[in-house]
Design a protein that fits this description.
By secondary structure, the protein is mainly α. It has 13 helices and three strands. It folds into two domains: 14-163, Ribonuclease iii, N-terminal Endonuclease Domain, Chain A (Orthogonal Bundle), CATH 1.10.1520.10; 169-248, Double Stranded RNA Binding Domain, CATH 3.30.160.20. It has helices at 3-25, 32-38, 53-74, 80-91, 93-103, 105-108, 116-119, 123-139, 141-156, 159-163, 169-179, 219-234, 236-248; strands spanning 184-194, 197-206, 209-216. Residues 2-11 and 239-249 have low confidence and may be disordered.
């Protein structure tokens, strides 16, 4: 391929990326390199300035600040404990991952697609946080706040529903285990350094059998992910929905 052909191909690829990104963002991005970095997982780029881990760190802080601000103003008479719990419900890893996929980030993210486990992991929630970091650096705090409210909170995070949502999956699974005389344990299956951070794999073990495992950068999050996956496998959420339907009849 000649130089001219490569330039044309690169320009075409960049134009396509800008169009896809604008569809997700709802506005024309400025510093394209920021967004490409935000959408690049470390499975493709090891260097810290080429993958989204630094932007994820920044976006996590910015997103938490915006959510805290929104909650503080919406609930002027609620105590700190309520506000903290609501924020956790809104920015927990599973919630953000689900939102990211619905937004279409999975389709435009750069990651090692040969690794099947990545497609089913929580990396897209991390990508969403990195995207928030990129918007903050590109457009500033006020634009970022507006985007988070209009593109994350309003379409995906319904406050009334979240007020009654149970997010402690471990407690729920323990309750089920006690009720059914099952032995439930959370075991650390693996921990190793990955891109300068310690990655934990925790398994939900029921009566000596590994039912599900979760991965995260701390044991608490990993065990919560494992518990949620175990709940899904056991069909406990489905059972609750069926019970509610029966009780309403």
């Amino acid at each position: 391929m000649g130089i001219l052909e490569r330039i044309i191909k690169t320009d075409s690829s960049t134009a396509t990326f800008k169009k896809q990104l604008k569809n997700v963002l709802g506005f024309a991005p400025g510093k394209i390199v920021l967004y490409k970095t935000a959408l690049t997982h470390r499975s493709l780029k090891d260097k810290s300035d080429e993958n989204n881990e630094r932007l994820e760190y920044l976006g996590d802080a910015v997103l938490s600040a915006i959510i805290a601000d929104v909650l503080f103003k919406k609930y002027p008479y609620k105590e700190e404990g309520f506000l903290t719990e609501m924020r956790s419900k809104m920015v927990n890893r599973n919630q953000l991952n689900d939102i990211a996929v619905k937004m279409g980030l999975k389709k435009i993210s750069y990651f090692n697609k040969v690794d099947g486990s990545l497609k089913m992991s929580q990396i897209f929630g991390n990508t969403l946080e990195a995207l928030v970091g990129a918007i903050y650096l590109d457009k500033g705090f006020n634009k970022t706040r507006q985007w988070v409210v209009e593109r994350i909170i309003q379409p995906y995070l319904f406050m009334d529903d979240l007020e009654t949502l149970e997010i402690n999956h471990k407690n729920k699974l323990y309750g089920w285990a006690n009720k059914n005389s099952k032995m439930l344990e959370f075991e650390t299956i693996d921990e190793h350094m990955e891109s300068g951070r310690r990655l934990f794999t925790v398994g939900a073990v029921i009566d000596g059998q590994l039912l599900a495992e979760g991965k995260a950068y701390n044991k608490k999050d990993a065990s919560q992910i494992a518990a949620q996956l175990a709940i899904d496998k056991l069909g406990l959420n489905k059972s609750e929905t069926e019970d509610d339907t029966i009780n309403k009849k």
